[in-house]
Design goal:
alpha/beta, D-Maltodextrin-Binding Protein, domain 2, 6-stranded mixed β-sheet, 4-stranded mixed β-sheet, 16 helices, 12 strands, signal
């Protein structure tokens, strides 16, 4: 997995050299190097499964953009080999005009030189972005290269019927969470007389760095970090006391309490989702995008949404979301700007939250003038919105977050899978690997 990512990144890096003459634009103070045509249809790529409800929801948004602005646009959904196909287009000097992808891809795409800077003059609604969203769109040079259009943060989904059966309350602290997890595992909350329930659903696989991605919620709430900012550079942080304590507590759920669902260390999100909705596990720290599915499969009356329990430091949770990237070499920069500006305006943000057939192109609004309650009469969404506003934390926008996430996932997974491993020793070795990676990326504080 890691080697494939590196090969793709290298391919994109080489291909991006072909775009060097095309990447200067009016947004960075000069005139576009490519002849402009305001009538040219915008080619928009989105990373999602073709034919999926997500594609349908985004197509509805693109159609609304065309109707509102007069610009023409065509949406293409791609999931398999997305990066490879993007690299091929870069090599052909014909990138799509817009790419809609995770905000976590900002560092990589900026480093590859395939995105152009976004000007607040050209995208006026950017002044209305929440502080977190505005900061998430900036690369390590302090300039903006992405426009977040949707946000999300994690909260705790918990079986309310199980709580009632065992006369328990939703946990507010880590200690309470551990006790509820133990009770869900040992006290037959579903009443079937079988020893077949567990406290916490965990996607602990190394695939795409899931083990690290999920653990970040607990690491940050304990005051730990994968890498720490030091001036304008970074240093590794996994062997620091706060990080070690976070890992000790988290590992204890697996190795001592045995409250994670069976096979957690080999599961990514699809089977973990099933573990929660089928009654294998009673708690799941996840995002709002899972509610429509669980409302249908499990029943909205069977679970509730509460804030993530407070850790030793605070209740920090992972924040993520989708972003609009204005790709280098476009022959319709005005259209690019117009799409980004329209999407983060109040009307589009509300339309995105309304969604299509239970699928939302906007999970939580990034425009601070828009409230979830403007569209959704559901207190659960407010819980997620508060989590984002008060405790949401994005992964750092370093040149490439993917290798950091992957190598930390490998270690977190190993510590969960083998309870005999020396925890502090493994985290110390991980910091050595992180030091090398930060050095390679040119961001190590020496």
């Amino acid at each position: 997995m890691h080697s494939r990512i590196l090969r793709t990144a290298a391919l994109l890096g080489v291909a991006a050299l072909a775009l060097a003459g095309c990447s200067s634009s009016s947004s960075s103070g000069g005139k576009p190097a490519v002849a402009q045509n305001d009538k040219a249809a915008l080619e928009i790529w989105i990373r999602t499964t073709p034919g999926s409800p997500s594609e349908a929801a985004q197509k509805a948004m693109v159609e609304a953009f065309e109707k509102k602005t007069g610009y023409k646009a065509e949406l293409t959904a791609i999931f398999d080999d997305f990066e490879t196909k993007l690299a091929q287009r870069a090599g052909q000097r014909k990138l799509p005009d817009i790419v809609m992808n995770d905000i976590s891809q900002l560092g990589t795409m900026h480093t590859q030189g395939i995105v152009r800077e976004v000007s607040s003059t050209d995208v006026p609604h950017s002044k209305d972005l929440t502080p977190q969203a505005a900061a998430a769109g900036k690369a390590t040079d302090g300039k903006t290269y992405a426009v977040p259009y949707s946000a999300q943060a994690n909260a705790l989904l918990i079986r309310s019927d199980w709580l009632q059966k065992l006369d328990l309350k939703a946990p507010k602290t880590w200690d309470e969470m551990r006790k509820v997890a133990q009770a869900f595992t040992a006290q037959d909350p579903d009443g079937n007389g079988q020893n077949d329930t567990y406290g916490l659903a965990v996607p602990g696989s190394t695939k795409r760095g899931y083990a690290s991605w999920y653990f970040s919620n607990f690491l940050w709430a304990a005051g730990g970090d994968f890498i720490k900012k030091s001036g304008d550079k970074f240093v590794p942080g996994m062997s620091d006391d706060a990080s070690v304590k976070a890992m000790e507590w988290y590992r204890g759920l697996q190795c001592t309490d045995k409250v994670m669902q069976p096979g957690a260390v080999s599961m990514d999100t699809p089977p973990t989702n099933e573990a929660f909705e089928t009654g294998v596990a009673g708690m799941y720290l996840t995002g709002p995008y899972m509610m429509p599915r669980f409302d249908k499969s499990l029943g909205a009356d069977k679970y509730e949404v509460v804030p993530a329990p407070k850790g030793p430091k605070d209740a920090s949770v992972l924040a993520e979301g989708g972003a609009i990237y204005l790709m280098a070499g476009s022959d319709n920069e005005k259209g690019q700007n117009a799409f980004a500006d329209w999407y983060i305006g109040t009307d589009a943000q509300k339309a995105g939250m309304e969604g299509q057939n239970g699928t939302f192109s906007v999970q939580l609004p990034v425009n601070q003038k828009v409230k979830v309650s403007d569209v959704r009469d559901d207190q659960r969404w407010e819980t997620f919105a508060t989590a984002y506003q008060d405790n949401g934390r994005y992964a750092p926008n370093i040149p490439s977050w993917t290798p950091v996430r992957q190598m930390t996932a490998d270690t977190v997974n190993a510590l969960l899978a083998d309870c005999s491993l020396d925890l502090k020793g493994e985290l110390t070795k991980l910091d050595g690997k992180l030091t090398t990676e930060l050095l390679t990326q040119g961001i190590l504080k020496k």
